Amino acid sequence: MRATSDRAAPSSRLPEHLQPEPGRIRTIAHRGDSASAPENTIDAFDAAARAGSDLIEIDVQLTADGDAAVIHDESAMRTTGIDAPVAELTAAQLSAADAGSWFGPEFAHARVPMLATVADWGAAHPDIGWLIEFKGLWTPAQMAGPVAALRGRGLTGRTILQSFDPDTVAAARDVAPDFARALLVWELDSEDKLFSRLREIEAAGCNPSGMLPNRTPGLAARLRDAGYSVFPWTLDEPDEWGAAGGAGVDGVITNRPGPFLDWHTIRWTGRTA
């Protein structure tokens, strides 16, 4: 499954500055710097930028009126106090909700942003890349609006679209062939099936859960040999970072981007902070 010189590696579909680099593990802020500010809010993205993150990972859910809300859970309850599914709420209802007080009273101003708002923020922060998870099953028609918002703000060349659902990644392939794509993996049933899925959906990367590369010796190396980028999630402690680095990953998705970047600078590259 090794990528050969006569066939471009799948990771070549990534924007050039996000492609794998030997000796470098990219810092990917999980839902923003979610250890410092309420997840998936502009405050968390500001904190991620201050921490020096290479990319920000966010979650997108479809609203009742067809907008793309940046929120993780199917229910709005945990982060807004609204006891209803996101799919049954409008963009206006979510945008008006307090999405920060659960984290701390100083964040009572925080709101659930729509993807277009986040794309505006992204346009103003050109050094930040994006790893955008579409939650659940999305059709090409449903994905067209969010993709247009990203493309219209110049984020195509620094964005990776991903999902656990191979059909959603395939929808991204069909509606947004100019965007790189990755498949999220929770558990590994069969490596042969995994590689078959990755080829079918023309993925650039495979982003596995937590310590899956460590629990499956050689998995990260085999993915890399086949030309895929590897970003595991969600790793927050030095022993997890070290295990991931030893397994040969290209980036780490973490709630603690600042501490990870400090660790990477000192422990992995051999440089002082």
UniProtKB/TrEMBL annotation:
Residues 25-264 form the GP-PDE domain. Residues 1-22 are annotated as: Disordered. InterPro entries: GP_PDE_dom (IPR030395), PLC-like_Pdiesterase_TIM-brl (IPR017946). This is Glycerophosphodiester phosphodiesterase.
